[in-house]
């Protein structure tokens, strides 16, 4: 009996671990999909996204909490047109926010030259290193994400400016032409809906393409076989 219990416990832990890994994969894939161009670092879920122009042979990033000893290479994200021809690229690095931290300092490396992040105007002089460093303070960069407050849900979607973004879900019987999101700032779209208690599946639409919520890591497979974002209102 004890062996059976240990076996079931191990199996449950394995399943939980695999689910967490799969959910993390969907989150990172969604974040990558949301990268459109080089810009200021921003927070997505529990990660900070750094971007850079793809015009150097090597681009790296190093952080204060690692004493700048580790240089992380930025990855290349290539954009394609409708004929599958490359039309441009951008570099990016996704950092999981360190536990119990209120902010980070970092430096960029371009072809062996250490410098501050040209995409980030926030920097300060570090007396410890004797040079300027870029910084990200979480107090000034509160994660903007889909969230529920009482009986209302504020849906958040980030994309290119000037898009027509629609919201579809089980609350609209998957009709994507009922709810249109408002662009409250360039590339930032919001919509507040009053929803009764329950669990709702949803996604965003730009044109006819469904898009998962990059600010919400919770994903499910619907009975129809599609993957959708999910939120529960208590």
3D structure, described in words:
By secondary structure, the protein is mainly beta. Helix content is 14%, strand content 45%. It has one helix and 20 strands. The protein has one helix at residues 2-34; strands at residues 42-44, 47-53, 59-63, 72-73, 75-80, 86-96, 103-110, 113-115, 123-126, 131-137, 147-149, 152-158, 165-169, 179-180, 182-185, 188-194, 198-206, 209-211, 219-221, 227-233. The strands form four sheets. Strands 3, 4, 7, 8, 9 and 10 form a six-stranded antiparallel beta sheet that branches. Strands 13, 14, 17, 18, 19 and 20 form a six-stranded antiparallel beta sheet that branches. A hairpin with an 8-residue loop joins strand 3 (59-63) and strand 4. The longest helix is centred in the N-terminal third of the chain and has 33 residues, at 2-34. It is globular, with a radius of gyration of 21 Å.
Protein topology:
Layout: H1 2-34, E1 42-44, E2 47-53, E3 59-63, E4 72-73, E5 75-80, E6 86-96, E7 103-110, E8 113-115, E9 123-126, E10 131-137, E11 147-149, E12 152-158, E13 165-169, E14 179-180, E15 182-185, E16 188-194, E17 198-206, E18 209-211, E19 219-221, E20 227-233
Antiparallel strand pairs: 1-2, 2-6, 3-4, 3-7, 5-6, 7-8, 7-10, 9-10, 11-12, 12-16, 13-14, 13-17, 15-16, 17-18, 17-20, 19-20
Give a quick summary of the entry.
With 234 residues, the chain is mainly beta. 14% of the residues lie in helices and 45% in strands. The chain starts with a helix and ends with a strand.
- What is the general shape? globular
SSE arrangement, N to C: HEEEEEEEEEEEEEEEEEEEE
Average pLDDT reading: 84
Total helical segments: 1
Helix content: 10-25%
Residue runs with pLDDT of under 50 for 5 or more positions: 4-23
